[in-house]
Amino acid sequence: MSPPGRLKGEHRRAQPEAILISPPGHPKSEHRRAQPEATLMSPPGRPKGERRRAQPEATLMSPPGRPKGSQSSGRNSASTGAAVGGSRLGSKLPGEVRIVGGLWKRSKLPVADVAGLRPTPDRVRETLFNWLGQDLGGWRCLDAFAGSGALGFESASRGAAEVVLLERDRRLAASLNEVKQRLKAETVRVECADALAWMARCAPASFELVFVDPPFDLPLQQPGLAAAARLVVEHGLVYLEADRPCTAEVLQAHGLRLHRSGRAGAVHFQLLQRIPVE
Fold first, then answer.
1. N or C: which end of the chain has fewer CB within 10 A?
2. Domain span holding position 67
3. Number of structural domains the chain divides into
């Protein structure tokens, strides 16, 4: 009941003013500072974790021609064994991988349990060959550290005129030859040889595309990149896969520039282009 002489409606209008006053002993400014806490929450129906999980998707591919400066934090993830294509470095390898496109799409390639063997994840190969184009007709390709042969056979499946697979492990080389026979891959040649020694003997400008994907635990990235740069034609391409990206300064020293780049877990992959000699 309102006090005598005060209308009921006036009593109700006075109530909102009362809630603006802080409790005794608490300054009004302190009450205002507490309000922004509510803005940290996600909208109803969207867990806060969803927003954080969505952010890494933006780092999977850099725009053409832009160095991967935004991915410098990826170097730390490699040392902690971050996920690579759904698994961790050092975990049990898959028993097989599949060709993702072309004439032999979905054909299986065996993956032997050999130290250092790390086949390129399917989604990375799919991204790479989307960059290259689905038809490699007329291209000469070299898979310098073949392993399972996934990159080389993927190229042949998409019409490459010549594909050379280099593998120094005799057991893996024999497995590559078995796959070649099974697929009737006449454009593929398997060489049981040390990659760096073989490339040093090869004539310059012999390939349109060279894959450099050495074991991460061996110091082969830089010498492999230098050898590959010599073997590609002007405007030719070098694919590099490593536990960290090459900087623009290192690429320029080898006469290369960044064309495309991406990342999947601890795997950094870059498509590089030979700079024409003026």
1. C
2. 49-274
3. 1
CATH number of the domain residue 206 falls in: 3.40.50.150
C-alpha closest to that of 146 among 166, 175, 169: 166
Which bin fits 180, alpha (ψ -120 to 50), beta or left (φ > 0)? Answer: alpha
pLDDT digits (tens, 9 = 90+) for 116-172: 677 788 889 999 999 998 899 999 999 999 999 999 999 999 999 999 999 999 999
Is 226 a domain residue?
A: yes
What is the 8-class DSSP label of residue 214? -
Residue 145 placed within a domain: yes
**DSSP class of 197:** H
E strand residue ranges, 146-248: 162-166, 188-191, 207-212, 232-242
227, 253 Cβ separation under 8 angstroms: no
